[in-house]
Amino acid sequence: MNRLKVLALIGGISKDSLNKRLYHELVKHNTANIVLQTCELSTLPFYSQDIENNPPESVVHFQGLVKEADAVLFITPEYNRSFPGVLKNAIDWGSRPLQNNLWRRKPAAIIGASLGKIGTFGAQQHLKNVCCFLDMNLMHQPEFYFDASASMDATGVVAGSIEFIQMYLSKFAEFCEGL
Ligand SMILES: Cc1cc2nc3c(=O)[nH]c(=O)nc-3n(C[C@H](O)[C@H](O)[C@H](O)COP(=O)(O)O)c2cc1C
Fold first, then answer.
1. Where are the alpha helices (DSSP H) in 14-141?
2. For a FRET experiment, which of 16, 48, 72, 136 has its CA 20 to 30 Å from that of 142?
3. Is 43 in the pocket of ligand 1 (CB under 6 A)?
4. Any atom of ligand 1 within 6 Å of the Cβ of 80
5. What is the pLDDT of residues 14-62, one digit of tens each?
6. Using an 8 Å Cβ cutoff, are 29 and 61 in contact?
């Protein structure tokens, strides 16, 4: 069976982003039937209806990646109890023009890393709302709230969390294949 192509959309854009680190840990420990890839969301301009029908190359490239992906994995930081604007901007670009909502029925899952026990719960709740509105096929269980202060050190994800990552990715593959 072909491996599923999963596009990871990471809401952290700083070079030392915790969520970028989490993505690299997923790639490192991926034993599921999926291929992970990502793209840089900070290159997208702010969405504007003025350029919707003639968007710049960065947007065309991004929309192409979303179209080609079998599924998307949102990896979101939590900013002020919500998900970052850079991620919302990317989602908005994928949703327009309205008749070309690229998210419709797209298999998706949400995870995220922060420094504390809340582990991006607030950000994920807000993001779920948006995913539902856009008619994504969202995996609801298992949930993935990552407290990087407890589960990651300078060398990467600690034992125990590696197994969790592997279990999560294989559940996501199963979810996508079962649709
Ligand atoms: C503007 C801003 C708002 C934040 N708000 C929250 C928050 O609501 N909850 C939380 O747990 N952490 C919050 N944090 C801390 C982030 O969890 C932490 O900076 C984390 O490293 C962000 O992920 P990133 O490194 O991938 O960008 C906030 C950080 C910033 C810069």
1. 18-29, 57-68, 85-94, 121-133
2. 16
3. no
4. yes
5. 999 999 999 999 999 999 999 999 999 999 999 999 999 999 999 999 9
6. no
Give kind and range of the element (H or E) at residue 36: strand 34-38
Q: Is the CB of 157 under 6 A from ligand 1?
A: no
120 pLDDT band (50/70/90 cuts)?
very high
User: Which ligand 1 atom sits closest to the C-alpha of 10?
Assistant: 26
Distance from the CA of 54 to the center of ligand 1, in angstroms?
Answer: 34
Sequence spans of domains, the chain: 4-177
pTM over 0.90: yes
Q: What percentage of the chain has pLDDT greater than the value 70?
A: 99
Return d(Cα 163, Cα 142) in angstroms, integer.
13
The CATH number of domain 4-177, selected from 3.40.50.360, 1.10.730.10, 3.40.50.300, 1.10.10.10? 3.40.50.360
